[in-house]
Design a protein that fits this description.
- This protein is mainly β.
- The chain has no helices and eleven strands.
- Strands 2, 4, 5, 6, 9, 10 and 11 form a seven-stranded mixed β-sheet that branches. Strands 1-3-8-7 form a four-stranded antiparallel β-sheet, with no helix packed on it.
- Strand 5 and strand 6 form a beta hairpin.
- It is globular and about 40 Å long.
Length: 122
């Protein structure tokens, strides 16, 4: 599976962005998908995940109620809708695919996109 993340950019606090992650390969629908982020000088952290069916979603406490993960299997794409953005959301965001479960640990994911930068100004 190859992943291509896009949609990052510069936004003011309180604004919104939608990240997309396009996947290649016919087995996209069998993978759980996740979004992680890494801010400068910090470790990679879990943001959100969605099961292969789309029936289950998981969020970090820091983004719960503001971010929404979804997937469109017909388009082989997973999305991260980010609302009410805060300066502390500034990071490079990565999408990832797991053949097993919608995990919160980055080690559970086998495939990674290249990352897209989100900058939230105050």
């Amino acid at each position: 599976v190859q992943l291509q993340a896009s949609g990052g950019g510069l936004v003011q606090a309180g604004g919104s962005l939608r990240l997309s992650c396009a996947a290649s390969g016919r087995t996209f629908s069998s993978y759980a998908m996740g979004w992680f982020r890494q801010a400068p000088g910090k470790e990679r952290e879990f943001v959100a995940a969605i099961s292969w069916s789309g029936g289950s979603t998981y969020y970090a406490d820091s983004v719960k109620g503001r971010f929404t993960i979804s997937r469109d299997s017909a388009k082989n794409t997973v999305y991260l809708q980010m609302n009410s953005l805060k300066p502390e959301d500034t990071a490079v965001y990565y999408c990832a695919a797991s053949p097993t479960t919608a995990a919160t640990l980055w080690r559970e994911y086998d495939y990674w996109g290249q990352g897209t930068l989100v900058t939230v100004s105050s």
